[in-house]
Amino acid sequence: MRSTKLYQYQLPVETGIILRQRRLKQREGFIVHLLDNGRSGWGEIAPLPEFSHESLADVEKELRHWLDIWQSGQSEHLDQYSPSVAFGLSCALAEIEQTLGEKGNYQTAPLCYGDPDELYAKLNQITGEKIAKIKVGLYEANRDGLIADMFLEAIPDLKLRLDANRSWTLEKAVQFASKIATNRKHRIQFIEEPCRTPELSRQFALENQLSIAWDESVREPNFLVKKEPNLTAIIIKPTLTGSIQKCINLIQQAHQQGIIAVISSSIESSLGLTQLARFAHQYTPNTLPGLDTLNLMQYQLLRPWQGSTLPLATLDSEFIWDI
Ligand SMILES: O=C(O)CCC(=O)C1=CC=C[C@@H](O)[C@@H]1C(=O)O
Ligand SMILES: [Mg+2]
């Protein structure tokens, strides 16, 4: 016997500089609960405005369609659906099938907003590899370079991930690079999409001996994971990519070529984020995931993130209702 429940949620969020164009005030999405012969699975489906192509209305339609089919005992290939739908449903199914391990990787690369003291405090809580992520490309490229180099100089075992979201011209990117001491460049694990086009990013990386990672590129049609000089990682945001299986394929293609795969947040609630931490633990066990986004919210949803003190909103809270 199969049964399903569909909920909608809305949580206050302060996305700050994480989303460049739009400061989201509310994070909205759906929660599905699947029951199959006493086994239960939950999934979060939350398209990210400005990043996802599907709207909440599209998602609701797709979900209702899939839930009907599943309840009648049939199944359909998930990647025919929008990425957020495919990811959330595949999580719920993986919980039912018990293929998503319980253990999660809750040590994630802390996001730094430019305040060194805050980063020092966060890094002090880390026991393993010290890796932090800084957004760049929002202010002067020179300033970004000085700040990154200052962190690297001050914390000798620190590695940095930087994210420019394709915002630099080649000239700006070179200005940034000129501020990084040559003997510290290798401690920049990667810069995500430094320049306006992948072609310029490649040229920049090569000419300035810096490593890069693809993030936006991974979600472009016809993207292929391919080893190239100076490319150290691909960033996988499952809510923007698709089913767990689709993400596993990308991870395997990356690992086969010696490329790091970083599982990263699309600002899901703690429900989706804890599933991402479990997914990361299982499939990218040697890599710190990019999941430091829970604190953009004032509440957790249904499931607690290990170590978080944020209050937990449950099914009877004002933030979640059934539809
Ligand atoms: O990757 C991480 O460490 C955290 C997530 C993160 O940085 C992002 C999440 C969602 C939207 C983005 O602007 C941003 C990114 O560009 O990677
Ligand atoms: Mg990015």
TrEMBL record:
| The UniProt record lists the keyword Aminoacyl-tRNA synthetase | no
What reaction gets catalysed by this protein?
Answer: (1R,6R)-6-hydroxy-2-succinyl-cyclohexa-2,4-diene-1-carboxylate = 2-succinylbenzoate + H2O
Matches recorded under InterPro entries: Enolase-like_C_sf, Enolase-like_N, Enolase_C-like, Mandelate_racemase_C, OSB_synthase_MenC1, OSBS_N
Q: GO molecular function: any one?
A: O-succinylbenzoate synthase activity
Q: Which domain of life is it from?
A: Bacteria
Binding of Mg(2+), residues: D163, E192, D215
Q: What is this protein called?
A: o-succinylbenzoate synthase
Organism, by scientific name, is Ursidibacter maritimus
User: Gene name on record?
Assistant: menC
